[in-house]
Amino acid sequence: MIEPVHVIGAGLAGCEAAWQIARRGVGVILHEMRPVRMTEAHKSADLAELVCSNSFRSDDQENNAVGLLHAEMRRLNSLIMHTADRHQVPAGGALAVDREGFSRAVTAALERHPLIVIRREEITGLPPPDWDNVIIATGPLTSASLAQAIHLSTGENALAFFDAIAPIVHRDTIDLSISWFQSRYDKAGPGGSGADYINCPLTRSQYHDFVDALLAGAKIGFHDWEASTPYFDGCLPIEVMAERGRETLRHGPMKPFGLTNPHTPDEKPYAVVQLRQDNQLGTLFNMVGFQTKLKLAEQVRIFRTIPGLERAEFARLGGVHRNTFLNSPKLMDPLLRLKTDLRLRVAGQLAGCEGYVESAAIGLVAGRLAAAERLREPTVLPPATTAHGALINHITGGHLVTLDPGPRSFQPMNINFGLFPPLARIPDCSSVATRMKGTAKLLAKKRALSARALADLDYWIAGREVAGDRRA
């Protein structure tokens, strides 16, 4: 008799993991603490309850990375995507769902499956030793007792406080005719060259206009369950720093000292915005110290006033919110297992991804890996060229820990094309008019990345090897 796999948490990731395991003929015990113990955010006992938005974001598989992730999940027989498609409501190019109908349908599907047992109980500590194959998918509202148990096991804080997220910019949309590469005082840190940051200069008037825009910009409020959680002292929102005095930022994250603009060497910038490489591919750079509660549209508008970022495209915008996630690149192996306890896999937002679809996608892969392990089959990860593979690569090692080695350097992220390995050949847009060439090139690149991802995923599904596969 094959022993069941235990899945803790029945959000999107846990439900998808359980479904994928059961589809392989392996039993599942799915543990969910609601309604025995409710969270501050959930309103029902339904599984896969959508706490915030009812949108799964763009469904455009050719031009949008999350749409590509949708397409990949459909090909992998995802319960979450199948149910979302059945309960879709009008939302333009986005995939949005009837919130209650969606959750009830997921619950019913899991309750009907003969290989899935749902236990309504809270798991207050690490699983007992006889649970030898476990997926923890408890999400950003992981109970304090379980978070504490994980902390004691790994030696790392699970980060349950207002977590500050800085915006991330696609490297190829930064104007290097205005900005330049340089580390402060040309200092070469671990893994660095002494020219590790992209620097965007501001004059006195530009700086004061920027501060005015920050102070006047519309901000996002906190959810009820976040209100009592304190800020992390080292990561105050940039607008909060600005409120403490007009010169605060230029003596903090925007200080110009130790930097010389090679474009205008005789003119010292009054302030400088620095961007630091965020992934090993060098395709993404984060805005250092720019965590913010500005509304998303305001961030785009205000940050594009910074010289060098006028045409910036953002892989992720900033935020400050309560979250619980692991320092995954340090704590997890490529098969999503805790290095300190290989019987435990982590999936969903707790693993360090952001968003409904991304959480479910990591749950999908975790479920397939757990089932393969139970059946003693080879475990082969999706190629890094796919959306699933790119997400896993970011979580388990794609983030550049060496340039910012503290335990808080890793941040959750939505899927975006900046996480994908570069194309071997850039699409040719030479026939396009000059004023349209940049946009056309970007669209062609996205479509080429999507086409490559789906082709490589099909090879993976068929069991063939694709360059970049990682075997256990």
List the helices and strands and how they pair.
Blueprint: E1 5-8, H1 12-23, E2 28-32, E3 55-58, H2 65-75, H3 79-86, E4 88-89, E5 94-97, H4 99-112, E6 116-120, E7 134-136, H5 144-154, E8 161-165, E9 168-170, E10 180-181, E11 197-202, H6 204-216, H7 238-243, E12 271-277, E13 284-287, H8 296-303, E14 314-316, E15 319-323, H9 328-331, E16 337-338, E17 341-346, H10 356-374, H11 387-398, H12 434-461
Parallel strand pairs: 1-2, 1-7, 2-6, 7-17
Antiparallel strand pairs: 3-5, 4-5, 8-15, 9-13, 9-14, 10-11, 11-12, 12-13, 16-17
Helix pairs in contact: 1-10, 2-10, 2-12
What does this structure look like?
The protein has a 6-stranded mixed beta sheet, with helices on one face. Strands 10-11-12-13-9-14 form a 6-stranded antiparallel beta sheet. With 472 residues, it is an alpha+beta fold. The longest helix has 28 residues, at 434-461. Residues 401-408 and 468-472 have low confidence and may be disordered. It has helices spanning 12-23, 65-75, 79-86, 99-112, 144-154, 204-216, 238-243, 296-303, 328-331, 356-374, 387-398, 434-461, and strands at 5-8, 28-32, 55-58, 88-89, 94-97, 116-120, 134-136, 161-165, 168-170, 180-181, 197-202, 271-277, 284-287, 314-316, 319-323, 337-338, 341-346. It is 31% helix and 15% strand. Strand 12 (271-277) and strand 13 (284-287) form a beta hairpin. Helix 1 (12-23) packs parallel to helix 10, helix 2 (65-75) packs parallel to helix 10 (356-374) and helix 2 (65-75) packs parallel to helix 12 (434-461). The protein has 12 helices and 17 strands. The protein is globular. The protein has 2 domains: 5-160 and 324-419, 3-Layer(bba) Sandwich (FAD/NAD(P)-binding domain); 164-320, Beta Barrel (Elongation Factor Tu (Ef-tu), domain 3), CATH 2.40.30.
